[in-house]
Amino acid sequence: MRAGAPDGNDLFIRDAAVMLGAGLELRQATNISILDGKISEIGAARRTGGQRILTGKGLLVIPGLVNAHIHLNDAPLKDAGHGKSLDELVHPVTGLKATGLRSLSTAERVRRMSGALDEMVRGGITGAVDFHEEDISIIERLRRVNRNSEILTVLGRPQRYFSDSDISLNTGFEEDEIVTFDRQQRKFDGVCLSGANEYSDRAMEQIGAMRKGLSGIHAAESAGTVERSLRMTGETEVERISARLRPDFLVHMTKATESDIDVAAKSVCGVVCCPRSNAIFGVGIPPISRLAASGLEIALGTDNVMVNSPDMFREMDFAARIARSSALDVLSVQARETIRMATVNGEGIIARGEGRGIVEGAKADIAIIGMHGVRLSGTHDVYSALVHRAGPGDVMGTVKSGRLLFRGRGLRMEK
């Protein structure tokens, strides 16, 4: 079964190793019963008539991977502008991304976005938060042609960016702009803003007052963005965002100060780090250890498809390595904590609460990993192997709300 060809939503997984709950407790030889898209029983579960049986021997069942920050719409521009700076590539008005997408047909863009969706599903991803910069029309078209789009939580934004002068004068949105965006955002799952330097304080207050659903914004991505905010307003991006917008989560925090981290810990729920993207753009690496120590829930994302593969295994591996390296501490951000960042914590950001993982009553969003291949067999630490050795090729199945979106060749179903 190829990615994008869904199956039914009643499954019985027999005799698999499972990472259970928010703590990812490893339990061997466990049965999981899935009915009506939810996990109905774990442990000594028995098959209910009509459930398809999946043979779990040699498999590891984990919570579905969550790509908590992605820009899906630039998938048609893979590797365009390699070596360009952050602003040159992705500035929402003048960047190569904005100008390059305008030259492509809608059909070509949808085809490339659909391919990136399939890549994510084949890689065990059951949830992805898309920061969408345009109106909803291309997402609606994507949803019509690829059912894997059900993994997406799509956030939208007003189609106006504020000049330095507007920000200095604290100009807000006009009434007709507010009405238009209020109408548009009903088609999205929430709000995503580019960054504090594209909006006045007044504009962020207006969005904060009217937003519906999930909300996020880029913050402290580079030294340049931090300096610009201080120059224009006398406050850091994080200070301005936390006081005016109060979003559910911040993205990046690469150049966050200790004060910024303290402010964020008191006013937002989580931070999504994208270390591979930050490294490609040469803007630094996020202080993952310090962010986690503050009590913030840390999730991971792959950011722009045009510069990064949407591969959460690569993101986990890189994040864990740079966290330990920057902290000069081999015990910093252990493998199990990294897996939480790529699964349960991302689930919690989407749910605007706490992630549950694999527990009875939860949605059956799971990834099935084959542990019998040469890369993973014989491991003495399953958590470490999953972070530092596994890859999309080890994913045998991806299940969303009980439906088998992707079935690898090594996944055996009993008749």
- Major sheet size, sense and barrel closure: 9 strands, mixed
List the total number of helices.
16
Spatial shape:
globular
Broad structural category: alpha/beta
Structural domain tally:
2
User: Can you count the beta strands?
Assistant: 18
**Helix percentage range:** 25-40%
Task: Quickly describe the structure.
This protein is an alpha/beta fold and 415 residues long. The chain is 35% helix and 23% strand.
Detailed description of the structure:
The two termini are 16 Å apart. The protein folds into two domains: 11-64 and 357-414, Urease, subunit C, domain 1, CATH 2.30.40; 65-351, Metal-dependent hydrolases (TIM Barrel). Strand 11, helix 10 (258-267) and strand 12 (270-273) form a beta-alpha-beta unit. It is 35% helix and 23% strand. It is globular and about 65 Å long. With 415 residues, the chain is an alpha/beta fold. Mean pLDDT is 94; it is low at 1-6. The strands form three sheets. Strands 1, 2, 3, 4, 5, 15, 16, 17 and 18 form a nine-stranded mixed β-sheet that branches. A five-stranded parallel β-sheet has the order 9-10-11-12-13, sandwiched between helices. It has 16 helices and 18 strands.
